[in-house]
Amino acid sequence: KNPDSPTLINAFQLIGMSSCLDLSGFFEK
Amino acid sequence: MGCFHSTASKQFPGHEDPVILASQTAFSVSEVEALFELYKSISSSVIDDGLINKEEFQLALFKNRKKENLFANRIFELFDVKKKGVIDFGDFVKSLSVFHPNAPHEDKIDFSFKLYDLDGTGFIERQEVKQMLIALLCESGMKLADETVEIILDKTFLEADVNQDGKIDKSEWQNFVRQNPSLLKIMTLPYLRDITTTFPSFVFHSEVDEIVT
């Protein structure tokens, strides 16, 4: 690995940031 | 096994036997009964028919019935196990069970695979991931050049798509998730541990004389 190359987040880590994938809303009044 | 009474909840259109549901899921009988309290409130929020439609689902999740979103739609489709366009109590409990902290890891991997396999072909394809990335960028107001999106997709598929056929199959997904366990974070809802405390009123409607776990 090139130590100078920036670490890129993978696509699924980014998608997982969607608030619409967070089901906590069911339990928050 | 507890003793059953004929109660109002047994007459509820979407109701299913909590003992059977508990035996099929990560929930105890008491937790299933507590979930029924939540289910009753969601399923009567727009149309009081004992079933959860998409509008009620979104209203419960986002407090906003008009929020149209690719991910919200996909989650609804996955909860709608019987593909009836509505979620009944059994669907609701079985789907939420996957999000229980004690649910089997494999169930979480399977559910997340289905979530990302938008068209249900049995593969997560590059075009699907791109579509979800663009939806995420729109939702969050983040701006990324198309070139950057392609670089992220290249890197992701280089790591996940081991046989480099342009799509991620179930076994590749299992390996990728093992290497990136944070990807399953969205698959666990800590709230589900305390469901009986969140909805204590289940005690007044309980059908079992004693707590069955």
TrEMBL record, chain B:
Residues 67-102, 104-139, 148-183 form the EF-hand domain. GO terms for biological process: calcium-mediated signaling. It comes from the Eukaryota. SMART domains: EFh (SM00054). Gene3D superfamilies: EF-hand. It is found in: Membrane. One of its GO terms (cellular component) is membrane. One of its GO terms (molecular function) is calcium ion binding. Keywords: Calcium, Membrane, Metal-binding, Repeat. Its main location: membrane. Transmembrane segments: none annotated. The keyword Metal-binding applies. Homodimer. Interacts with CIPK. Acts as a calcium sensor. CBL proteins interact with CIPK serine-threonine protein kinases. Binding of a CBL protein to the regulatory NAF domain of a CIPK protein lead to the activation of the kinase in a calcium-dependent manner. Belongs to the calcineurin regulatory subunit family. This is Calcineurin B-like protein.
